[in-house]
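Weekly puzzle thread! Below is a chain. First person to post its structure in token form gets bragging rights.
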Amino acid sequence: MRSSSDRMLAGVCGGIARWLGWDATAVRVAYVLLSIFSAAFPGILVYLILWVVMPKDR
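Winning reply:
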């Protein structure tokens, strides 16, 4: 679930961090690095898909 409290844009990284039990900042940094090394476009597309697919927490 997307995080409504630990979010910068849509809460996707915050939700993934909570699910994995990791720090949200570490997930965000890893996501940005992965996006940069994959030519950025696939990372943005995956984020948008997760934004639509992941339900928001209550």
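Puzzle host: Confirmed. Bonus trivia for everyone else. The helical segments are 12-20, 24-37, 41-53.
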